[in-house]
Specification:
Radius of gyration: 17 Å
Bound molecules: manganese (III) ion
Largest sheet: 3 strands, antiparallel
Number of helices: 9
CATH architecture of the largest domain: 3-Layer(bab) Sandwich
Strand order of the largest sheet: 2-1-3
Mean pLDDT: 96
Number of strands: 3
Shape: globular
Low-confidence stretches: none
Helix content: 40-55%
Number of domains: 2
Distance between the termini: 23 Å
């Protein structure tokens, strides 16, 4: 089976009004799906990637300079990770080990949210704001376009926020700051962020690739 569009981990209307079902129809149902389809199409042309996992496809396409495949497969992975970072608003807060790391690194959960907000708003053009684990400490940063922690040292992914315009234009028009603060204050899945402290965040948005049938002459 080729790479699939992963199911959303929540009902499509469960994040409203912070993120509407219509936004998810487009962002997940069309944009994310297009990255899945394009990745599968590009892999079919490359027998060397037969059976490779999504993580392997992202890393190998980067190494070999196949930027078309890198951009599409990295976006497939980034979005698969992003949806898991969100959860319906229930007043969730970081706790346990994560809360301790946040306190050590930023002073308070609100200070971390402010830092993520600043990173998301000031990131020029398309990209992603990230909370990563870097040698045992939390760090906020951002990456451009499809770029992803998968191909960077010292970036164990914990949380991400998509700041491409397609992420907010339906619900917030051009107002990225209002989108970012609304998401960060209400629908962060802190349980998922905390789980990723085990370093396995890469695997949580991974998929196994399909074996391409042997070509017979
Ligand atoms: Mn997106």
């Amino acid at each position: 089976m080729p790479f699939q569009l992963p199911d959303l981990p929540f009902a499509k209307d469960a994040l409203a009004p912070v993120m509407s079902a219509e936004t998810l129809d487009y962002h997940w149902g069309k944009h994310h799906k297009a990255y899945v389809n394009k990745t599968n199409e590009l892999i079919e042309a490359d027998q060397n990637l037969s059976g490779a996992s999504l993580l392997q496809v992202v890393r190998r396409s980067k190494e070999s300079g196949n930027y078309k495949l890198f951009n599409n497969s990295a976006q497939l992975w980034n979005h698969s990770f992003f949806w898991q970072c969100l959860a319906p608003s229930k007043g969730q807060q970081p706790d346990g080990k994560l809360a301790k790391l946040i306190e050590d690194g930023f002073g308070s959960a609100q200070a971390l949210i402010d830092k993520l907000q600043e990173e998301a708003v000031n990131h020029f053009a398309s990209g992603w704001a990230w909370l990563v684990l870097d040698r045992g400490s939390l760090r906020v940063t951002s990456l451009h376009d499809a770029d992803t922690p998968l191909v960077h040292e010292g970036m164990v992914p914990l949380f991400t926020l998509d700041v491409w315009e397609h992420a907010y234009y339906i619900d917030y028009r051009n107002e990225r700051p209002r989108f970012a603060s609304s998401v960060l204050s209400n629908i962060v899945n802190w349980d998922f962020v905390a789980r990723n402290l085990d370093g396995q965040g890469f695997e949580r948005a991974n998929q196994q690739g399909a074996e391409t049938p042997e070509l017979t002459a």
